[in-house]
Amino acid sequence: MILLGLVGPALTVWFKDTDATLLVNPEFIRGMGGNNVRYVHSLPYNSLAAYVIGICLGLYIYDAQRIDKKFPNRKVLSLLTWMVVPATVLLFSISGKYFFGSHERAPLLFRMIFAAMHRPIVASLYAFLVLSLVFKFNKFGSILADWSVWRIPSRLSYMVYITHVNIIQYLLGTRTQLANISFINFVMNFVGVTCISFLLALPLYLLLEAPFTNVVKTLTHQKLLSKQDTKKE
């Protein structure tokens, strides 16, 4: 599966001559993403490598907690935890400068390598961050992650994920004039889309996700009880 997640995006770039990642430029906005969204972002195998890394992380955490695993060199691990976000910024800064800073399109080989590797790299970085928060390599990060204020946003996160793209497309589709590209405008758009997404996600969670989840839990619980009753008989 992880091999498919590495080879699939690279072959898509090769056969379809797409960009290595989604580049938000005037052509992208005018065409509402066009084929780039489907080929570069939406195809199932594009995120398969990151999905496998997440599964492996979950299994490792489960086994480590079950055997009460001890981690040596916690100071080094704590320092590495602080480096996750700077490493992410550095990765996207270098790649963004290369893709946007040059007037020429990136070579095919580099686009294939970047398409294959950037998701697994980011997934590995944040898998380590999750591992650090679970096993408390960094005290400050663990205290921040355990803060009870994250409970409500975490429950709404799936609906936010579903709705935010539609909100962005609506805002772009109803725009009647050009927008100035600046840091403050970017921050305002980001905060605005985030707030609207959470406001829409709340009723969707209460009316759709939560009832459906409870129905599924009830059905699965009844099946487990029936299986246990048949075994006892």
Automatic annotation (TrEMBL):
UniProt KW GTP-binding keyword: no
Residue intervals passing through the bilayer: 44-64, 76-100, 112-135, 156-172, 184-208
- What name does UniProt use for this protein? Acyltransferase 3 domain-containing protein
Q: Which PANTHER family match?
A: O-ACYLTRANSFERASE, O-ACYLTRANSFERASE LIKE PROTEIN
Keywords of the record:
Membrane, Transmembrane, Transmembrane helix
Highest taxon of source: Eukaryota
